[in-house]
Amino acid sequence: MNRIATSPVTERPATRRLLIGLALGFLLFFLVLPLISVFAEALRHGVAAYWASVTDPDARAAIRLTLLVAAISVPLNTMFGVAASWAIAKFDFRGKSVLIALIDLPFSVSPVVSGLIFVLLFGAQGLLGPWLMAHDARVIFAVPGIVLATVFITFPFVARELIPLMQEQGKDDEEAAVSLGASGWQTFWHVTLPNIRWGLLYGVLMCNARAMGEFGAVSVVSGHIRGETNTMPLHVEILYNEYDFVGAFAVASLLAGLAMVTLIAKSVLEWRFELHQPGARS
Amino acid sequence: MTKSAPRGSTRLLRRSVLPGFRLSMGFSLGWLTLIVLIPLSTIILKTTGMGWDQFVAVGFSHRALAAYRLSFGTAAAAAMVNAVFGLLVAWVLVRYRFPGKRVVGAIVDLPFALPTAVAGIALTTLYAPSGWIGRWLDPLGIKVVFTWVGITIALVFVGLPFVVRQVEPVLADLGKDVEEAAAILGASRWQVFARVILPAIGPALLTGFALAFARGVGEYGSVIFISGNMPGKTEIAPLLIVTQLEQYNYAGATAIAAIMMGASFAVLLAISLLQAIMRGR
């Protein structure tokens, strides 16, 4: 009776501590230890060995390619995300929910299948393969294929973040601007963009993290040519399979660093601007 | 979420006030068609283009069936672990106060940000017989690396945030008044959880389970290092697709991909039906 009177809707302190302990223990074993082990393994033979692995010519080529792929695919999908959310949030039209479902499609496709579809399209036996061959152009086992697979994989990120945000904000501000004589672009740059900038940054951040870290889809289309079509995650795989563990973890530690920077920036955005993230995210 | 509210008869007029519909819609549809719809349609084209015998021969071979069993089985096991522990983590994050809570909240999203290949080699090293965790399990005779247990652990890593992020907002919105009422009427804390809280968060928990499961079925990067990839034993379905592609067997790869997509679609449909029933009650 006494317990109910004091705190009817919480657990006893002992239960509470037990649950917190269980949750933190689970997170420690499944998330924190793997993260720490990346850095520990990378530095196992000292800083010099670490530095040598990171500055190796093949590693540098992989870093350059990863940056290039992200530099192409993230802006493209950002433009798409802004355009799609403008159309979806500011206008009423039939089939809107179908369009939103189609935008989400790449999230529900296995990364390997995401690579496979581009092989079926552009590969040697693919639909457009003979035509590409006749024009001496390569897509698969070359950089264009890697970019295409990455664009497919990261397709929904910005749109998914912006659509609910812009729907919530409605269109009153834009209508006021237009009725006061602003042009469409002026309205977008001076009214819409300031309203959505933090959500946009959030979407770009997550899009970039995935673009730089994608493995399965890129692995299918890349051909693993050292120094040419190896992105950082693929380089990690090659080094690991060659038993160069320090090398593999050294390059992996750069990606883990990127992940930590992404998480910190994401959390800051969430706390300061109270952004909520959409449920589905891969 | 408030949709832009149509206001009576002015709706048509209001709709036409803002410019840029044709441009934004045209660009979106064009990009969607080029990047997503045309490439994905190749799966359907290739599947319908091959004979039934060929489809069955590769798609339902012993090796393929073993791979589906493994992929769907481990994905289901990992999603169940995540449903339990994801709920626990969400509960602790929403209901309790403890030092470092913000950091813990941020760490939950690590699997979204950490590249899968990095997670894969880290988990493999941790659970190897000489690794930080493996060295304690090895004397007990528990083998993780190169077994289905290792695959499940990798999928637990990958799927955890799906459950936590689905359950968290629903748990936070749950009014305490219902729980208070139940407690005053004499329900024990456990009864309140099982009869009041769990039914309320059920649909969200199920969505989290479905998302984690779907992600696990298709997952590749975090699994292939820890799985050992023995055909018929620890070879997951996505890896089998890659193997077929490396042998330039496009038809075989497509058949397996089509069956995988069909099966996960069926599972997701069943789960959303179950949700509709739960919500209907």
Quick overview:
The complex is a heterodimer of chains A (282) and B (281). In chain A, 76% of the residues lie in helices and 0% in strands.
Task: Please explain how this structure is put together.
The complex is a heterodimer of chains A (282) and B (281). Chain A has 282 residues and is mainly α. Chain A folds into 2 domains: 13-42; 46-273, MetI-like (MetI-like fold), CATH 1.10.3720.10. Helix content of chain A is 76%, strand content 0%. Chain A has 14 helices and no strands. In chain A, helix 3 (46-55) packs across helix 14 and helix 9 (157-169) runs antiparallel to helix 11. Chain A is globular and about 65 Å long. The termini of chain A are far apart. The model of chain A is unreliable at 1-6 and 277-282 (pLDDT under 50). With 281 residues, chain B is an all-alpha fold. Chain B has one domain (42-280): MetI-like fold. Helices cover 77% and strands 0% of the residues of chain B. Chain B has helices at residues 11-17, 21-49, 52-59, 62-95, 101-107, 110-113, 116-127, 134-137, 148-173, 176-184, 189-218, 224-227, 237-246, 250-280. In chain B, helix 7 packs across helix 9 and helix 13 (237-246) packs antiparallel against helix 14. The longest helix of chain B has 34 residues, at 62-95. The radius of gyration of chain B is 23 Å and the shape is globular. The two termini of chain B are 23 Å apart. The model of chain B is unreliable at 1-14 (pLDDT under 50). At the A-B interface, helix 2, helix 4, helix 5, helix 6 and helix 8 of A face helix 1, helix 2, helix 4, helix 5 and helix 6 of B.
Shape descriptor of chain A reads globular
Can you tell me the CATH architecture of chain B? Orthogonal Bundle
Q: Under CATH, the topology of the largest domain in chain A is which?
A: MetI-like fold
Low-pLDDT residue spans of chain B: 1-14
Proportion of residues in helical segments of chain A: over 70%
Distance between the termini of chain B: 23 Å
Indicate the structural class of chain A.
Answer: mainly alpha
CATH topology of chain B: MetI-like fold
Helix and strand pattern of chain B: HHHHHHHHHHHHHH
Order of helices and strands of chain A: HHHHHHHHHHHHHH
Helix segment count of chain A? 14
Radius of gyration of chain B using CA atoms only: 23 Å
The radius of gyration over CA of chain A amounts to 23 Å
